[in-house]
Here is the input.
Amino acid sequence: MNQSAQKRIFFIPAAAFLLLAVFLWRGLYLDPTELPSVLIDKPMPEFAMTTVENQPVGNADLPEQVFLLNVWGSYCLPCLVEHPTLMRLSEEGEFPVVGVNYKDRRQLALDWLERNGNPFAYSVLDEQGRFGIDLGVYGAPETFLVDGGGVIRYRHVGVLDESVWRDVFAPAIDELRAAGPRP
Amino acid sequence: MTLPRILLPPLLFLLVAPVGFAQVDAFAFDNDGQQQRFRRLSNEFRCPMCQNANLTGSTGGVAEDLRREIHRMILAGNTDTEIEQFMFERYGDFIFYRPRLRPDTVLLWFGPMLFLLLGAWAGWRILRRADNREKQPLAAELDAGEREKLRRLLDNE
Here is the structure.
């Protein structure tokens, strides 16, 4: 082995260290609590349940346009934080918001809607959290973006406030509209 | 006869302690085999909410629901593979403490072994070179002309 090759070998640990440093630096800014959903680009799971108002509800009742599926509960404080955004979306009417009342009590849910206002077209009552398991939910609030064909396109874990709407959901919806034949 | 007062708190604790530990065994099974499968599976799956706990060790709401689901599926006669598939379809690789072997998880599984082998190879190279340098006869570093010169010197020509 000649001299320059021998010198070059001493840079390998330095290069390896730099590479490791880049990965660790990136890791500092990742949120490990936000898990990727395996349901992306999969159809909504089959369900036949009731709403919190005790009406039967199933896949056939889902909106035939882009809509939001918001997992909420009366015990959930972050749900109150995102509530104004959901109210605005509901008032504007462009995207229906379907609720999933997750691991809650019917009466508590009804009281909560009465007290704070109801942004949901309807809320599926999931007292046992069984529908939540089918959706891969692990805690309220979570919000799914579902396209007109009933296919899940995006899942957001945590509060959906105006900045998340502007930075994440609005671009995702634009992309859906640009790409797919379905609106 | 009265107990020394200092013994009272630990004795009272012993009374309630088993209640806390019984949480996981609150499910009824038809036989011990089912119960062992339940324990094994609850230990294997990771709680999606509390990240660094398995389903057995987690008091999170979703962990409770998933334990109930495992119990239901075991009683319904589902195999372990079916239960694992059920979890995977809903929560993905995250649910497994031991992710499945797939093209995109190969590095995760064998990366450490790869680095170990690389290190061993580099170490072997360095040791061998040091070894060679000691053993190498000096003459090997001379070119043909120098060797001729040396031979002449040694032969006293």
